[in-house]
Design a protein that fits this description.
Elements lengths: L18 H32 L2 H10 L2 H28 L6 H25 L4
Length: about 130
């Protein structure tokens, strides 16, 4: 086989980021973050069942600024992943596949994720 100069496929240096690609990548990232977050939640519940000192240390950590940022980040990931999953369900049903609808639903997704995340955080007494 010859190894001549073959054309390369276009890559990230060629394409300009679009809202569709950014939201798709963010959906995958939030899914990964949720899997890590659920693991932390299981560890927290296990510490609760063991009792005492380990649970107290985890509770103190989640009461700090870094712990609160971690919790609000987990909440953001959950809300975004949930809403984007609903968006994909509509697409699976053939609803909203026009390019203008895709961009509009993406914008609605971003705004609603921010509003609902802040609303839930405020309702649970995070602010």
């Amino acid at each position: 086989m010859t190894t001549g100069k073959r054309p390369l496929s276009p890559h990230l240096q060629i394409y300009r980021p679009q809202i569709t690609s950014i939201l798709s990548i963010l959906h995958r990232m939030t899914g990964f973050a949720l899997s890590i977050g659920v693991s932390v939640l299981v560890f927290w519940l296990a510490a609760l069942s063991v009792g005492g000192e380990l649970f107290s240390k985890l509770h103190c950590f989640f009461s700090t600024l870094w712990g609160n940022l971690l919790l609000i980040g987990f909440l953001f990931c959950f809300v975004y992943h949930f809403f984007n999953g609903l968006r994909h369900l509509f697409w699976d049903a053939g609803i909203g596949l026009e390019i203008s609808s895709v961009y509009n639903s993406g914008l609605i997704l971003i705004i609603s994720t921010g509003v609902v995340t802040i609303g839930i955080w405020w309702c649970i007494g995070g602010f």
